[in-house]
Write a structure and sequence with these properties.
Elements lengths: L6 E5 L3 H11 L4 E5 L7 H7 L3 E5 H10 L7 E6 L5 H9 L4 E4 L4 H52 L5 H12 L7 E7 L9 E6 L4 H19 L6 E6 L14 E8 L2 E9 L8 H32 L9 H18 L3 E8 L2 H8 L1 H18 L5 E6 L2 E7 L3 H16 L3 E3 L2 E3 L3 E8 L7 H17 L5 E3 L8 E2 L4
Parallel strand pairs: 1-2, 1-3, 3-4, 4-5, 7-8, 16-17
Antiparallel strand pairs: 6-7, 6-10, 9-10, 11-13, 11-16, 12-13, 14-15, 17-18
EC number: 2.7.7.65
Organism: Oceanidesulfovibrio indonesiensis
GO molecular function: diguanylate cyclase activity
Length: about 475
């Protein structure tokens, strides 16, 4: 490190020799003298950092051990006026960078000082350049690691179009940047009667107080970011990390907006076990990662909306027939793989054509929408309701026996019968007929065969007076009465 003051060490000098050197230095450096008995130690060397060491030949042996060869330090020996050429050669061979003879000549000393100063300045320049190179290498290394992090994040985010998977990837990757116990999110969209305003993505192992705390924080953050209150939302479970997740607290929580095309459409909440104190690099990396996450999540939301438009019935907001047929094949494959029970429920609104003819198609649409709402509220999350066509609805019931399906069918039948409708001052009610078919763990029935069995049970219910539930008998040809109304 460069010093403001240049220091020369003189070892074993007489007072006259010291004065001659001071005059020769001409104020450019300060002389510090040591006698040949009291030599400087390493602490003094670190403190003074001399650029030139002058020692008499008598003190040279000990001085050269006290001040070994060091970068940026010139070592000179002072020989007697009777010294021979062999003495000069011996001094040079012993490690002296310069040799002076007594009596001391100021011009010669001045030349040695000038040379030593040049060596020191050159060493300082090289040292500074080396430090700059090391710093640049560190900066390049950090930038390289940052690029690797972002590239890995982008590559993993491109692997999925599923929101839950993307949030899991984000938590996994951001955990390499800072300590994270959980990552939660809120994504909102336009409001309507049939569609929730927001989805809260929360870890499934949250306690009641933690869930309440995180829900409130995310909803408040959403209100702050988009300027409106979210009146309705649904909670989507994220896989647990196995770590205890406490309610959000100041200092241990980070809220970041999710943006795409300049629009804020959500936010994420990051929870840590202790207060966060982030460096600039961490902040830049995290903001960059969340920016890319926002684009990936926006694409996932748009993909989900497009898929829903393709898979959902626009009027009833439940799955359409095409998505039902695809799901039924998947469930049958799962049934055959694991040997689970399974049932299929087929529901038809009684005398639906008469409703359209009497009250109009708008009234018919209202009936279909109300029946769909009733079905949605009655089924489990693992069940799969769909509009099969016209006034017919179907429900796939995984791991459900005929007896359990019959209980659900009776409940739906009663709730539909209790629905009331009004059209232009006229009030009316509707009923439904329901057919159920189940398959046992050993069955290898195909999807068309299963639908056909449920359909036959449905028509048996209609033939016996409607507004009833019928379960197909084990013998495909003979449905048996499950309930009589």
């Amino acid at each position: 490190m460069a010093r403001n003051e240049l220091i020369i060490w003189g070892i074993g000098l007489t007072e006259l020799e010291a004065q001659a050197i001071r005059r020769a230095a001409d104020g450019r450096a300060r002389l510090v003298t040591w006698n040949s008995e009291t030599l400087p130690d390493s602490e003094a060397l670190d403190c003074d950092e001399p650029f030139l060491v002058l020692a008499t030949w008598g003190a040279w042996g000990r001085a050269s051990r006290a001040v070994p060869v060091l970068e940026g330090v010139t070592r000179a020996v002072i020989l007697s006026e009777t010294a021979t050429a062999e003495d000069v050669q011996s001094a040079t061979a012993s490690g002296a960078d310069a040799v002076l003879r007594l009596p001391i000549e100021q011009e010669r000393v001045r030349a040695v000082v000038e040379r030593a100063i040049s060596v020191r300045r050159l060493y300082e320049d090289i040292f500074r350049m080396t430090q700059e190179i090391v710093l640049e290498r560190e900066l390049l290394s950090r930038k390289n690691e940052q690029l690797k992090f972002i590239n890995r994040f982008l590559a993993r985010a491109a692997e999925s179009m599923d929101t839950v998977e993307l949030l899991g990837i984000a938590q996994d990757e951001l955990s390499k940047l800072l300590d994270i116990t959980a990552l939660h999110a809120c994504i909102w969209g336009p409001s309507s009667e049939e569609v929730f305003e927001a989805e809260l993505y929360l870890a499934e192992n949250l306690s009641a107080s933690a869930q309440q705390g995180w829900s409130s924080l995310l909803l408040d953050s959403a209100a702050s970011l988009n300027g409106i209150c979210l009146k309705d939302y649904r909670i989507v479970s994220l896989p647990t990390t196995g770590r205890t997740i406490n309610p959000p607290s100041k200092g241990k929580t980070i809220i970041l907006p999710l943006k795409a095309a300049g629009e804020i459409f959500g936010c994420i909440g990051i929870a840590g076990p202790k207060n966060y104190s982030l460096g600039r690099d961490q902040v830049e990396l995290m903001n960059s990662a969340v920016s890319h996450l926002g684009l990936a999540l926006r694409n996932a939301v748009l993909f989900s909306e497009a898929r829903n438009e393709a898979d959902y019935d626009g009027l009833t907001m439940i799955h359409n027939r095409r998505s039902f047929e695809r799901r039924l094949k998947e469930e049958l494959m799962r049934h055959q793989r694991y040997g689970h029970t399974m049932s299929l429920l087929l529901l038809d609104i009684d005398h639906f054509k008469a409703i359209n003819d009497t009250y109009g198609h708008l009234a018919g649409d209202a009936v279909l929408a109300a029946v769909a709402r009733t079905i949605r509220s009655a089924v489990r999350t693992c069940d799969y309701p769909a509009r099969y066509g016209g006034e017919e609805f179907v429900i796939i019931l995984p791991q459900t026996s005929a007896m359990q399906a019959n209980i659900l069918g009776e409940r739906l039948r009663r709730e539909i019968a209790n629905l009331g409708f009004t059209e232009e001052g006229a009030s009316f009610h509707v009923t439904a007929s329901i057919g159920i078919a189940d398959i046992n763990p050993e069955s290898h029935i195909t999807s068309p065969q299963l639908v056909r069995r449920a359909d036959r049970a449905l028509y048996a219910a209609k033939n016996r007076g409607r507004n009833r539930v019928m379960v197909a008998a084990a013998d495909e040809q003979c449905p048996s009465a499950a309930a009589m109304h």
